Amino acid sequence: MNGAQSLIQTLVNCDVDVCFGNPGTSEMHFVAALDSAPTMRSVLCLFEGVVTGAADGYGRVAGKPAATLLHLGPGLANGLANLHNARRANTPIVNIVGDHATYHLQYDALLTSDIVGFARPVSSWIHESKSAKTVAADTARAVQAARSAPGGVSTLILPADTAWEEAERPALPLLDRGPEPASPAAVEAAAMLLRNGKRTALILRGNALHGAGLEAAGRVQAASGARLLCDTFAPHTELGAGRVPVERIPYFAEQIVAFLEGTEQILLVGSKPPVSFFAYPGTSSWCTPEGCHLSYLSHPHEDACGALAALADALGTPEQAARRVPLQLPDMPTGNLTPSAIARVMSNLTPENAIFADESATSGGALLSTMATARPHTHLPLTGGSIGDGLPVAIGAAIAAPDRKVVCPHGDGGAAYTMQALWTMARENLDITVVIYANRSYAILNIELQRVGVQEASQKALSMLDLRNPEMNWVKIAQGMGVEASRATTAEEFADLYRSAMRQRGPRLIEAMI
Amino acid sequence: MNGAQSLIQTLVNCDVDVCFGNPGTSEMHFVAALDSAPTMRSVLCLFEGVVTGAADGYGRVAGKPAATLLHLGPGLANGLANLHNARRANTPIVNIVGDHATYHLQYDALLTSDIVGFARPVSSWIHESKSAKTVAADTARAVQAARSAPGGVSTLILPADTAWEEAERPALPLLDRGPEPASPAAVEAAAMLLRNGKRTALILRGNALHGAGLEAAGRVQAASGARLLCDTFAPHTELGAGRVPVERIPYFAEQIVAFLEGTEQILLVGSKPPVSFFAYPGTSSWCTPEGCHLSYLSHPHEDACGALAALADALGTPEQAARRVPLQLPDMPTGNLTPSAIARVMSNLTPENAIFADESATSGGALLSTMATARPHTHLPLTGGSIGDGLPVAIGAAIAAPDRKVVCPHGDGGAAYTMQALWTMARENLDITVVIYANRSYAILNIELQRVGVQEASQKALSMLDLRNPEMNWVKIAQGMGVEASRATTAEEFADLYRSAMRQRGPRLIEAMI
């Protein structure tokens, strides 16, 4: 058994059985070792941003890490932006980066770079293996670290000789640390706050937003009347009919301020105080109302679900049952194809239990509000603001949940970042419907240009936000990468194409000409 | 005048008048300020790897830096792999990265990251502006640092408030440091070595490989009989008929060892001793023959051209004139389309003074040997081993030299990394002919898999190197991004398409089915 085989077998022992990769020479032993573990699924991606974004989507849906396989520093570098998004989502990922053989580094060959330096800004744990004999143990620690609450990116650097030299045996999994229980004192203090009659909001994150955590939050709400809120870009929410309703904090600072006006107490449940996404001249970045009392029910590394359940118990039996979102489907649209029309079609036709890998950006406002009362579904947004995560996240979600339909509504500007993802969707025949909002613009920047105080932008400046010259043809791009694709120019055409996509399995792309 | 205007005007004052960018909200004042400097050309790219690769190609051809414009840490992260290539090419680049306003960083909003951390592995100079008042001076220093011999990546981080706050005036250029003169003692020592009768090789780099430097090297060769060599991936060479011939060091370690066998003295001219690109089990990475004497004529930060001229003078008038490459064009091919057939067509039909942005990878051996005696041309290879640089480098080269035909022979695996570059080629109507070697494989890895000692690779392993499922259609991908494209399946078809591309201006893609 060589080091690479000990690594892969240890991953499987630790319940990591999917690897997204784009290997190179220094990873050839890892590739060869894939055979030694038949249950390890290996997914080839044409670009490392797809690798890391797919691992992000997988981890958010599966609740456990996938592995990546990246080629030296530059391969890692190409994956960093979506690792940034994963870091902001607290997604568990075992990020494996090949390196030159230990004895080769001294020569500073052309592909040599500071891999630890590249990894540091996105990783919660980093280790370089120095011997084939320790690779298995290093791998078990990497998995443990990735799974440590609230989840993070473990970067394990694997020099080529530690892959090809002789190892002893694979390692067994280490203790799963899991989240720590929240402090009973914090629960007691929160219960007192919720009884003092002041206007209170809970900002939920992590496991407070799905399953038992969301149910417990619903009981707290029913017993206290407090508002349930979540971040604009909460990494993983369960939405739609039958679920406990949670209000999403809006995007722009002045909207957040208006949204929170009158709030006297904020209770943070694994979350942070709301701040502006960007700074603007003359606008405050801090959005908590003046005089509002801020406190923590639980910290990100603590068990929000347990804390909410304990808090609900402390508050006693509510007079009424938890609120539930009613099923409300809008009328089907006709005529012009607009973001609102797309939202109405999706709301009507998307089957229960779908997963939305949502990077709809400026076109997504209507989608979120319309889907709020659609059939129950999972929502995975762009968590770190680095565009080009949606298509890869859809890949990871589809592999984590092969029996669920994945829908990927995506802005065209962001989709151009990682368009190579389409190829992997075709290769793996993943059940993903991609909807490209073809507004041929970095539309958000036309808004932001004015918000930052630019009064009269010239043609030269505006052309830097404009994607009309030339117009991308997403049907051809998708077909060029093996994905069936069509264009919709009216609401009716879009409805026909979307209905057909929902009824079939496999990848489809619809270019929506809005 | 705000900080952004002071920055752009300072760039123009310092002779930096091209900016490749993909801006976001924090860069909107920079975008708006583009109007204040009409001579600044601003080129939009759909992905940051295209931005930085284009700046690499521009700098290598223009001999002066372009600026980039990147959006915060993740935007920089997407550009790091091609900055790695640029670092290995010693390309001067002024790498401008927007950041949150200084007062916003404390809130750790979602797009916040360790920008300095991301920048460090690729930058020779890094600075964060802290006030609009210093932005102009900081910019002048960034340009000076990028231009300091042998050239490097200067990263200037520009918080949004330093762009929008009031500045005073643009700065004037700082002293151009240029390369230092080589040590007279080193020149004298080299002259003594070249007279001692031992078999000597000069390994040339930087300005020793073009113009007056190459001419001086030719005089040294004629006077001494020494071999003239260059790195496998020398960043910028002038090749073809009429030029002084320089032998290229081969790629694999055992080839290098055979190539250098019998060499008793190596004189390094801005270069490093040759080493293996990768390590292999049981193979030495160090390729200098045992007992061979290594010494430096000039270091990378010194003037190789001046050192060679002084050395030629010290050696006295040679008995014969410097060697010249003869013009030898091969027969035009017929029948099967192979890398060799492509090379023969290109050698016959490429006009004088073309620029090759060459990422032909495993298909490129025939190209280099055949083009060696073709019409004079410039050769820009992949310098850092991080694939996906060729298409962007072609963009930068075409903008630096708008009157020269740019040819971009590219492997399909690498081209998939930065396919978004095609869009910018169409947008700017650049005179680039892209030739995709469509072998539907990471072909190098099939070679490397055996070289690293993997004996029997399974289908599962081999599938990770294979791009046939699905097959990419580069004609559709290119058309989807606005570039005219055709497919060639025979040598005759390829010749027809290539001839037509050489006669027209503007971007063209030929998918060569090899």
TrEMBL record, chains A, B:
Residues 1-106 form the Thiamine pyrophosphate enzyme N-terminal TPP-binding domain. InterPro entries: THDP-binding, Thiamin_PyroP_enz_TPP-bd_dom, TPP_enz, TPP_enzyme_TPP-bd. This is Acetolactate synthase large subunit. The keyword tRNA processing does not apply. Belongs to the TPP enzyme family. One of its GO terms (biological process) is small molecule metabolic process. GO terms for molecular function: acetolactate synthase activity; flavin adenine dinucleotide binding; thiamine pyrophosphate binding.
